[in-house]
Design goal:
The chain is mainly alpha-helical. The chain contains 12 helices and 2 strands; from the N terminus they run ααββαααααααααα. The chain has a two-stranded antiparallel sheet. Helix 3 crosses helix 6 and helix 6 runs antiparallel to helix 9. The longest helix has 34 residues.
Length: 277
């Protein structure tokens, strides 16, 4: 049984290792033919001329992700605090299933929602030629990652020992002070993990972004302009790509994988430092 449990615990590690081997084995040979620096910093994507610059897609991915996280994190954390410490059972009876349902909605449905409602609304309110933009993509991704942040943060808050809260009240603190100054800081590692999961979801999202971001492989010229992300770039062109073009898309997947690993490493480092302090 020890061997069975060890194998079960190793499944995730094995899966990650296999993905790494596949990506790097198929993506790194591209850099023997094309300069890595030109690939990462180039601003022109023209496969027919063998010009592969993914800087616009890298910048687009980061801008949309940052916008989504800035929108979703405060709302998600405050909602988790409300569900855990302020609402009653009658409200939670409807609120928790609603959050779970929001997490289960397919990406393409979010995309339709953004394309049919958010895009026309933005176009009309801001008097734009096209409502597909970084702003709409960020708002839509923010809505999509809300359930992840809410559920993870709520679980982290529920795991904090109740004697922290009771001790704060015993010292004369109010309910609100105890929640925001004692319980939330104590649950910070779990909350940060929820934000990391939200970031990973936002970086890796493709279908919904295709439908609302404008799909323009150029450097961003403002949040009201269209953009293309790394995931969209791969999905849009992999179906007909061949030879060096196909290799460049696999190399784009390698870059995306490394970016996600770096984001997780940075958040883990920050988390460990705060725990030690």
């Amino acid at each position: 049984m020890r061997g069975v449990f060890l194998f079960s615990a190793s499944v995730c590690i094995i899966a990650v290792a296999m993905i790494c081997i596949f990506l790097f084995a198929n993506g790194l040979p591209f850099f023997q033919e094309y300069n890595l620096w030109d690939f990462l910093t180039g601003t022109t994507w023209a496969p027919l001329r063998n010009i592969f610059g993914i800087m616009p897609m890298i910048v687009g991915s980061f801008i949309i992700t940052i916008g989504a996280v800035l929108l979703a994190s405060p709302i998600g954390i405050l909602t988790a605090a409300f569900v855990t410490y302020f609402s009653n059972s009658k409200i939670n009876r409807f609120l928790r299933p609603a959050v779970a349902l929001l997490a289960g909605i397919p990406s393409v449905v979010y995309g339709f929602f953004g394309m049919m409602l958010l895009v026309p609304m933005t176009k009309e309110l801001l008097n734009l030629s096209s409502g597909k933009s970084i702003l709409v993509a960020s708002v839509l991704l923010g809505i999509m990652i809300l359930p992840t942040i809410i559920q993870t943060s709520s679980a982290a808050l529920s795991a904090v020992p109740k004697n922290y809260y009771e001790g704060s009240l015993a010292l004369g603190a109010t309910h609100e002070y105890s929640v925001f100054n004692i319980m939330l800081p104590a649950a910070r590692p779990g909350i940060l993990s929820g934000v990391v999961l939200g970031v990973a979801r936002a970086v890796g999202e493709t279908t919904a972004v295709i439908m609302v971001a404008g799909n323009q492989a150029r450097m961003p010229k403002g949040i009201l302009k269209g953009i293309r992300t790394l995931t969209v770039n791969i999905l849009m062109e992999m179906g007909y790509a061949a030879d060096m073009h196909k290799d460049s898309l696999i190399a784009t997947g390698v870059v995306l994988f490394v970016i996600v690993l770096c984001i997780n490493a940075v958040f883990s480092y920050i988390n460990r430092r705060r725990v030690i302090q």
